Amino acid sequence: MTQQEISKCKQKRLGECLCEARLISPEQLDIALNEQNLSGKRLGEILTIRGWVEQQTIEYFMKKVVLPEQLVAEKQLFDHQNNDNKESSSVVETRDFDSTQLLIIPLRKLVVNISPKKALQFLLLVILCLTLASLVGQFCLYFLPNFPFRNFFAAITNVDAEATLPAQYSASALLLCSILLLIIFHTKRVAGDAYVNYWRALSIIFLYLSCDEYLSLHERLSEPVQNALKTSGFFYFAWVIPGGIFVLIYLLVFLRFLAVLPAKTRRLFLIAGTVFVSGAIGTELVSGYYVELHGAGDMIYVMIATIEEFLEMVGVAIFIYALLSYISGSADTNIAFVKLPKTSYRNPD
Question: Tens digits of per-residue pLDDT, 288-317?
Fold first, then answer.
């Protein structure tokens, strides 16, 4: 047994002992082991830094439980190898196994660990840069004389246009939401969760929103709805009527699902939805009223449209943070690629 294997075995046994003593939960152990795989730190050090276990407790378990049992296991392995050199290369010896027990090779996990807080900070920074770039581009377009690449810069950074950098970002962020929801749906389906179909429905909805952001599908509803209902004023952009109805139906259908979510996740979902809808529909109402009176050709309209898109992007960023937090904090939704063993071996003794 190599020194590295001995160290891993000690860490595993320490975690098992702490779980059996109910000093940490299995979920906390999984989080600590995932962090250990990434950072290379010792398990006891990680548990102490997170404040889950005192250092004195770690030292006690290592001295009184883990190390004595480790010495016994190593002695048994040494004796077994000396007694049967021919079979030692194909037989894995473990403590307290009899001749009828099946020896299973431990699973190996490749864990993708993303800090939800750092992801949110990064997304907010990107949103801020895109918003400021759009405002600068539109300001140059309205108030400064023509100069090289002025029109191109204003067009490519405009948050209120299609096929621009902000539009590409928004579509990608919504697509990321759909992918994260699909991951959760898959793990919930494997676990047999009763609310698994809600996760799948959310993934489909965000996939549609991603396509809509890229192609502006909802705006094509405005003219036929406006002609049919003769809308004006705040409902000048008439797509907000079917959009608002969809939001109400969505809330009614998902109320039960929201009620069973963890309190933090439910709160973040509601905050993200409120911010997003206040931009997509709330600010659009103001925008429609202003456009009918003054048109869309001045800086005031640009400011209204910028606020609308800013709120939408922030709402999606908060939702991504909520999903990442839910994944990292839920034992059955850890993002991991598991390599299963192809064969098992029986102890010939």
Answer: 999 999 988 899 999 999 999 999 999 999
Start-end of H helices in 216-298: 222-229, 240-260, 263-277, 283-294
Which residues are registered as beta bridge partners of 137?
none
Contact 11, 40 (CB under 8 A): no
Cα–Cα distance measured from residue 338 to residue 185, given in angstroms and rounded to the nearest whole number: 17
Domain ranges of the chain: 3-96, 116-333
* CA 217 to mean position of chain CA atoms: 27
> Which residue from 213, 173, 179 is spatially nearest to 199, judged by alpha carbons?
179
Give tens-digit pLDDT for 210-229. Answer: 998 888 777 777 888 888 88
Place of tokens 């102490």: 48
The residue whose two tokens read 């001995």 is 6
Coil vs helix vs strand at 162:
coil
Which residues is 345 bridged to in the sheet?
A: 103
Quote the pTM value.
Answer: 0.65
